[in-house]
């Protein structure tokens, strides 16, 4: 009688497909608040927080947004 053990992969249940609208600073902060209410995992929240902070020298979100706008204009 062959006995096989079924391996349990702990990452099977972690599949997220989230979309966030980063049109301006205010929408980024609203997306962060909405994600906190939804209870999304910490790594996703950390990325949204990183991109939405636009004070005290952290302007990554603004630079990414501007880069996206210029890219759209150049490709169009």
UniProtKB/TrEMBL annotation:
A GO cellular-component term linked to this record: endoplasmic reticulum membrane
Record bears the keyword tRNA processing: no
Pfam families in UniProt: DuoxA
Organism: Loa loa
Subcellular location: Membrane
Top-level taxon: Eukaryota
Statement: the UniProt record of this protein carries the keyword Electron transport: no
Name of this protein: Uncharacterized protein
GO biological-process terms attached to the record: protein transport
Keywords, ordered alphabetically: Glycoprotein, Membrane, Transmembrane, Transmembrane helix
InterPro entries with a match to the protein in the record: Dual_oxidase_maturation_fac (IPR018469)
Similarity comment text for this entry: Belongs to the DUOXA family.
Membrane topology: Multi-pass membrane protein
């Amino acid at each position: 009688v062959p006995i096989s053990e079924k391996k349990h992969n702990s990452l099977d249940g972690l599949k997220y497909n989230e979309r966030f609208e980063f049109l301006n600073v205010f929408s980024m902060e609203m997306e962060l608040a909405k994600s906190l209410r939804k209870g999304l995992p910490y790594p996703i929240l950390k990325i949204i927080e990183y991109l939405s902070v636009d004070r005290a020298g952290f302007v990554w979100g603004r630079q990414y947004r501007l880069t996206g706008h210029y890219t759209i204009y150049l490709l169009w």
